[in-house]
Amino acid sequence: MSDERSQGFQGEDGDSVSGNLIDSLDRVIASLPPGDSVRRELLELRPQIFDQQETMIEARRMIEKLEEVVKKVTSPANRIGTFLGATSNDTAHIVVGGADYYCNVDPRISLAKLKKGTRVLVNDAFVIVGDLGFETAGPVTKITEILGDDRLRVG
What we know:
Oligomer: single chain
Strand content: 25-35%
Strand order of the largest sheet: 3-2-1-4-5
Number of strands: 7
Distance between the termini: 85 Å
Shape: rod-shaped
Number of helices: 3
Helix content: 25-40%
Order of helices and strands: HHHEEEEEEE
C-alpha cells in the first residue's frame, strides 16, 4: 500500500480515523477504470466497510460513556460540613465532623451567598464544592441562655 493511502487511515495523533476510511476507499475506487474487476470488488465491500465504521463510532461513544460512569462510581464520597464564615475572599471557616477547618472555596461557588450555618459539600482536599442550603430537620434542643447576637447556650 502506498504512503498516501496508509496516511488516509491515521489521524494527527496516529489513531485510526474511521471517517477517512470511506473517503480513502472512494478515492481508490475513483482512480480505477470503470470496467476493472478490483473496482467492482471494492464497490461491493464499501457497504460492509461503512457498516463497520458506524459500529466503531458507536462503540467509541459507548466506551466514553462507560469511562464517565467508572469515573463517577470510583470517585471518593464528599463530606458535608457547616459553613461558619468567610476568612478572606476565597477561604472559609467550616466545621466537619466536629473539627474546624480553614479551607478553599471552589471559584464556581459564591462565597458571598453562603450564610453562617449553611451546609456545604466538601471534597477530599477539604475544598467547598457545593452549597446544600440549611438543614431542615435535626435534633431538637433547649436554649438555656442567649449570650449575644449570634451566640446561644443550649442544654
